């Protein structure tokens, strides 16, 4: 029988959920910035260092965060951030209403709030005609009341709400995904579970002494299950995607879109998380743990399939090598020390030419 959202709870009283928007504003190189740096050191500098450019949310990134919340957090936590709206008004009038509510919450009087809403929504109609409709249309008044009752929450229409529900149900219907997330076994329930755990560390924490400089790092791991008596940690990362989850981690599947993560991106992130967990667990428990790494991929379209990848045997491949995270950190530090962000390091140390890899181009 099809479940409703949160019919089965993913958290127990033993679990600890740590989620803070302040993470994104704290200093530190994270796995997302690796891909940004590989695109362009100049882009990295403007987005990470100077903050001249900023990340902009899209409908898909907002949906992705909601799917993560539905899978990892309790019903109360999810509903404190998201709400289903069957009366959502779109377009310029929807923007007008939202800007009016935002201004009202900020303590601005109604006349000034209407003025701000009119300017920001971009209407071509006269301000008076827009305001008249705003004040007389019963559907708008109903929607306005709904927004005021749900201040600070993100609204989803029925279609997207169903997607969130389908994704959560798919994950918890998958035997291995459910087992990993809840981690109940026949031997023991002695474990600690952490969701969206923030870890702050630096390059000098790495046990191999492979980096000789001090660079601040940060990680936010979806799910950590610690079995202290067994000396083991299970690391679980969750990805939602509109692509086929069965080919998500296969190298040949990445040639069709520049926006898809490559297998190198995935292993680099997992390797970075692994090392962050080694540092975190050593400080917290004063001992070393073995770490298993898993990736749960859930499809947001059509079949809503879930696939679980065990990355434990190959996770270290993301650490070393030309595009491993260690070399990227070395290059980031080089640019930081030299204060040169205009071009890649190879430009400054070489001829300024770039070699084109024929395997990664459509040129004939």
Question: Summarize this, please?
Answer:
With 364 residues, the chain is α/β, with parallel strands linked by helices. Helices cover 42% and strands 15% of the residues. It contains 13 helices and eight strands.
Record keyword descriptors for this entry.
single chain; 364 residues; alpha/beta; 6-stranded mixed β-sheet; two-stranded parallel ribbon; 13 helices
Protein architecture, described:
The protein has 364 residues and is an alpha/beta fold. It is 42% helix and 15% strand. The protein has 13 helices and 8 strands. It has helices spanning 31-39, 41-49, 59-72, 75-79, 91-105, 110-121, 127-136, 138-149, 158-173, 175-182, 263-285, 325-338, 345-349; strands spanning 16-17, 82-84, 154-156, 192-202, 216-227, 232-241, 290-299, 306-310. It has a 6-stranded mixed β-sheet with strand order 1-4-5-6-7-8, sandwiched between helices. Strands 2-3 form a two-stranded parallel ribbon. A hairpin with a 6-residue loop joins strand 7 and strand 8 (306-310). Helix 1 packs across helix 2 (41-49), helix 1 (31-39) crosses helix 12 and helix 3 packs across helix 9. The longest helix has 23 residues, at 263-285. The chain is globular and about 70 Å long. The N and C termini lie far apart (53 Å). Residues 8-19 and 252-256 have low confidence and may be disordered.
């Amino acid at each position: 029988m099809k479940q409703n959202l949160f019919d089965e709870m993913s958290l127990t009283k033993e679990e600890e959920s740590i989620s803070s928007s302040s993470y994104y504003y704290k200093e530190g190189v994270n796995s997302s910035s690796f891909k940004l740096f590989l695109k362009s050191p100049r882009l990295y500098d403007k987005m990470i260092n100077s903050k001249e450019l900023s990340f902009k949310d899209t409908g898909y990134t907002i949906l992705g965060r909601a799917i993560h919340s539905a899978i990892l957090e309790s019903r109360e936590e999810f509903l404190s951030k998201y709400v289903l709206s069957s009366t959502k008004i779109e377009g310029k009038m929807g923007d007008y209403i939202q800007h009016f509510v935002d201004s009202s919450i900020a303590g601005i009087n109604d006349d000034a709030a209407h003025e701000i809403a009119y300017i920001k929504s971009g209407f071509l109609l006269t301000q008076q005609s827009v305001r008249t409709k705003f004040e007389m249309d019963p559907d708008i008044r109903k929607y306005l009341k709904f927004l005021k009752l749900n201040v600070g929450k993100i609204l989803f229409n029925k279609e997207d709400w169903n997607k969130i529900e389908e994704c959560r149900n798919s994950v918890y219907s998958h035997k291995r995904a459910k087992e990993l997330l809840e981690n109940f076994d026949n031997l023991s329930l002695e474990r600690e579970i952490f969701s969206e755990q923030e870890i702050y560390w630096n390059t000098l924490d790495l046990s191999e002494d492979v980096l000789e400089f001090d660079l601040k790092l940060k990680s936010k791991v979806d799910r950590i299950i610690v079995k202290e008596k067994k000396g083991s940690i299970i690391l679980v990362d969750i990805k939602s995607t509109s692509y086929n989850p069965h080919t998500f981690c296969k190298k040949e599947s990445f040639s069709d879109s520049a926006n898809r993560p490559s297998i190198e991106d995935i292993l680099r992130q997992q390797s970075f998380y692994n090392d962050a967990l080694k540092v975190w667990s050593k400080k917290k428990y004063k001992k070393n743990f073995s770490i298993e790494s898993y990736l749960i991929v859930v499809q947001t379209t059509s079949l809503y399939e879930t696939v679980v990848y065990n990355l434990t045997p190959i996770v270290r491949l993301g650490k070393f090598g030309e595009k491993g995270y260690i070399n990227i950190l070395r290059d980031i530090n080089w640019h930081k020390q030299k204060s040169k962000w205009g071009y890649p390091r190879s430009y400054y140390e070489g001829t300024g030419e770039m070699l084109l890899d024929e395997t990664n181009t459509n040129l004939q």
